[in-house]
Amino acid sequence: MVPFNANDPKYHSCCCGAHVTKLVRILIVITLFCQLLSFSHFGILFISGCCIVILGAIGVFKESRAIILIYIGLNVICKAFDVTFSLAFWNLAQFIKDRDVSQQLPVVYEVRIDQPIRIAASALGSEDPTFIPVNVSVPFAPVEQSEIAVPGETPPPYEEK
């Protein structure tokens, strides 16, 4: 059996030829410092982030393999949430861009009265006082095919017909 060599070249290959233990200690201190700088929203996310980084620092400085593996697992879970949240924000940005770029068609309103209504005979020009219109449809600003707005053009002004 080959004895363990802590200075084996495979442990110096991470970054700039630094030994893995020195490099990880520097990285965990930087991570802890960055976590402390992000305390502007002191809440459960800040506290949980600090706990995870402190757990990693304990694992690194005590050189405990189990604690480091737990730290790595928690980090992977947090990064998975980061990716998921980033995708959700990306989709929101695309939605806002599409909404801003597209030009909405003018809204067409139509008033439909499907219930029988007793209207004064004089208003409808009828001499029969019991005249009840059953289906009255009053269109407002009808849109014809030629009047549909094309992106980049302003819609024509409304004209009474």
Automatic annotation (TrEMBL):
Keywords: Membrane, Transmembrane, Transmembrane helix. It comes from the Eukaryota. The chain crosses the membrane at residues 42-61, 68-90. The keyword Transmembrane applies. The keyword Transmembrane applies. This is Uncharacterized protein. It comes from Pristionchus mayeri.
